[in-house]
Amino acid sequence: MATPPPTMRIGELAARTGVSVHVLRVWERRYGLLTPSRSAGGYRMYGPQDEWRVRETARLREEGMPAAQAAATALQASRRLPPELDDLVSTDGAATDQDGQAGSDDDGGVSRLRERLLQAIGEFDGTAAQAILDVALEHLGVEDAIAKIVMPVLHETGDRWAAGRFTVAQEHFASNLIRTRLSSLSLAWDAGTGPLAVLACPSGERHDLGLLAFGVVLGRAGWRVRYLGADTPLSTLGSAVQTLEPDLVVLSAVRAQPLEEAADHLAELPEAATTALARAQVIVAGAGATREVADRLGATLLEGDPVDVARSLADRRRQA
Question: Can you give the pTM of this predicted structure?
Fold first, then answer.
């Protein structure tokens, strides 16, 4: 598919990115960040690649990077983007397939983004990987980017490691890369005014990225999230629940043993902690969660994609 002609004048580009016209002109003149074409009437016209570079430069500036370095980094990253980027971006910001129609998570641009991200992970190319994640988050939205790009790539990374196609180093590289991006999306967890959720992996369970993704979606739905993370002793969880009196407690594990051990020691918690836990809705999730351990913990067993589960909980709470 041919790259569509640029359609935005600088005022529209400023409105879409939140960067003033004056600053855009400075970035274009001083750093060569933008590459406009000329319309028949002589106006400078900007396209999706220009918008992406502006957004990336602005993001890096917010992280404290000097303007010149941020622009240079964005320019370098844009050269490593999938060549079909323009095919992925429609005028309303939705991902599209090769025919310009909204693509499913199994075809078109979304599938290509997943493959490109896996390629960047395999090459230890952090700049390219961050660029792909930026595109996914911007044009799919946070929830769909997590559900259609981040989680499938994490699963595929694990599968490739198990099959000997990825090394331990590549698997760790992917985990740390994605953890950083998900953590950056959790900064507004205290801003919610909705119900309170406590999220934890039990002692002995260190795989918490699915739980982190769950928390990001729940937080964006207005919940207040208190994230205890990986390898949380049952006594620590009990203390937090006793203090916070949450509406929801989620325990997640990819192995059964940590959840089984938590159930074994549940009776050792102080009475005040068990009372607070009994008042909350308790959920066990992850590949290690079973019906048996859920019953022993007095919990609900939730299976499936963490994004879908979080969305379902948020919808049910809104309906209630």
Answer: 0.71
